[in-house]
Amino acid sequence: MNVARMSHSACVLDERIYVFGGLDGCGSALDSCEYYSPVMNRWVALWKMPVPIYAGSATTLGGKCYIAGGMTHNADDPTPRVRMTMICYDPRSRKWSVPGYLRMPLCHATLVNVQGRLLLCGGATYREEKARKRDLVSVASIDEYNILTNSWGFRTKMSSARQEVSAVTVGSKLYVIGGKNCEDEKIDQTVECYDTTFSTWKNCQFRLPTAVKNVKCVSCHNLK
After folding, report:
1. d(Cα 93, Cα 72) in Å, to the nearest integer?
2. Residue 17 DSSP symbol
3. What is the pTM of this model?
4. In DSSP terms, which residues pair with 101 in a beta bridge?
5. Weakly modelled stretches of the chain, pLDDT under 50
6. What is the rounded distance in angstroms from the CA atom of residue 134 to the CA atom of residue 93?
7. Distance (Å, rounded) from C-alpha 145 to C-alpha 143?
8. Which has fewest Cβ within 10 Å: 34, 46, 165, 199?
9. Given this model, what pLDDT does residue 198 score?
10. Measured between alpha carbons, how far is 69 from 110 in angstroms, rounded to an integer?
């Protein structure tokens, strides 16, 4: 990448890898974005985000990149703040917009596109909404975005509250993997499957060989 970063968001659109925000080596939040083009074999800078964001999550829908939640801070106020906003980048117009707000401030959540539906899995929010301090609590909820009303609503919940989960889709099924509960810092070995067609959870017959958090998963089809 052109800019060294961690805790950033990433997604793939039109055979390009997009990365958004994150933290630099000094722990400062970034508002820079870039994409990698396999055709050109190089990284290209994009328009900056409206605000610096890290610990958010990105995916694509309808030819646009969506980044949900995350944290931000600035030089005037170094205290991290959890964001309630979802922002959207349109590569065609090269413009940013704010299409909606989450049900609650969330960071370390995982945003996925399941057959044209945006689902936001787990994450961490303020223990007390009015306090807005650093005291965070993990959540078990999975929320769904309504593109017609530009609003988020509760869809279902995982078996336990956790953040930094991995999520991957296969058809209409959503697999939620691992994660961490910030109450006891316990890292999970669970693999759960949610069938979005029937709105039911299925118990997977296996657990991960080791507990994981904050790893990224992809689904592969027609491998030979």
Report:
1. 25
2. E
3. 0.93
4. 85
5. none
6. 37
7. 7
8. 199
9. 94
10. 10
Task: Give the amino acid at 201.
Answer: W
End-to-end CA gap in the chain: 31
Closest CA relative to residue 51, chosen from 30, 36, 27, 75: 30
Which residues have CB under 8 Å from 39's CB, separation 6+?
Answer: 15
Q: Which 3-state string (H, E, C) describes 133-183?
A: CCCEEECCEEEEEECCCCEEEEEEECCCCCECCEEEEECCEEEEECCEECC
Match 């956790």 to its residue by tokens. Answer: 162
What does the pLDDT read at residue 167? 95
Q: For the CA atoms of 221, 222, 223, 224, what is the dihedral angle to 10 degrees?
A: 170
Give the separation between CA 50 and CA 217, rounded to whole angstroms.
28
User: Given strand 191-195, what is the order of strands in its sheet?
Assistant: 166-170, 173-177, 191-195, 200-203
Provide the CA 165 distance to its chain's centre, in angstroms. Answer: 9
Residue 164 contacts residue 179 (beta carbons within 8 Å):
yes
User: Which of 192, 173, 213 has its CA nearest to residue 55?
Assistant: 213
3-state secondary structure of 2: coil
Task: Check residue 206 and give its pLDDT.
Answer: 76
Q: Torsions phi, psi of 153, nearest 5?
A: -140, 160
